[in-house]
Task: structure prediction
Amino acid sequence: MEKRYFSVKKVVLGAIMAAMLFASSSAIAAENGFVGVEVKYHGIEAQDPGTRKSFDDDTAALGLRIGAQNEDFRVSLMYDVVDDSEENGGDISQYLILASLDYKIPIDSQSFHPFFGVCLGYSEYKFDSHSEDDSVYGAEAGLIFTLNQKIDIDLFGRYLWSNHDTVDDYAQVGAGLNYKF
Result:
């Protein structure tokens, strides 16, 4: 019965993410689509599944993203990979899929825009032989710097809460490079 609950939860989460992306991207599809990469500091607060001892893991993470944007909004789908060996000999890996919707704060500038937004996604977390997967949700904020008509650079912070049994939350600070098409 427990397995079925998680399957239904994944289907519902996937449907919400798909609806969010479809509604947002169809509304702004006439504007700029983009693809990009992210490099970030990734902090995890978690518990060892065997001993339940709390620990913090700080490491670098890489991400890919695709999305669409206009003057007021940006919607994106991101995929992150974290792979790290702990000092205590444990191996940590995490795969994160996030949908985000950002609001660009209107200011009188063509070169940069502050933004804030919400995120909803799915995460798989592995610590040695222990594995969990569940939903994550959170918020993000940052600055988008427009270099030219085709290139944007983001500086951002993102905080995610997790429904995992062993992972409490994630914090990310990073930079992204987007190519607009």
Q: What stands out?
A: Residues 2-180 form a domain with the Porin fold (CATH 2.40.160.20). The chain has a mean pLDDT of 80. The beta strands are 32-47, 54-69, 73-85, 91-104, 112-127, 130-146, 151-162, 167-180.
